[in-house]
UniProtKB/TrEMBL annotation:
Alphabetical UniProt keywords: Signal
Signal peptide: 1-25
Name under which the protein is recorded: Secreted protein
Source organism of this protein record: Microbacterium wangchenii
């Protein structure tokens, strides 16, 4: 899969959900390429992370999207980090 090849080249940061807020975020990337996660939120049956580019669903309707998808930076579409979380 594409994300495996990107994983080898990408600088990874993790964001951990605790009480609906991000308590850890440590991107090991250049500041001008850094993506800030505004927060991890809960709404009804959906758990999602959000930044200024997109909303990334972590769980919806009982289905967990573990390790799926990435957050991208603008038009460059540079893969920056995945989300890990506890439910």
């Amino acid at each position: 899969m594409r994300w495996k090849s990107r994983l080898a080249a990408a600088a990874i940061a993790t964001a951990v959900m605790a009480g609906g807020t991000v308590v850890t975020a440590a991107p090991a990337v250049a500041a001008d390429h850094r993506i800030a996660v505004d927060g991890i939120h809960k709404k009804a049956d959906c758990v999602y992370a959000q930044n200024s580019w997109r909303t990334h669903i972590l769980r919806k309707g009982g289905k967990i999207y573990a390790g799926e998808g990435c957050l991208y930076a603008g038009a460059a579409r540079k893969w920056m980090f995945s989300i890990s979380y506890t439910l």
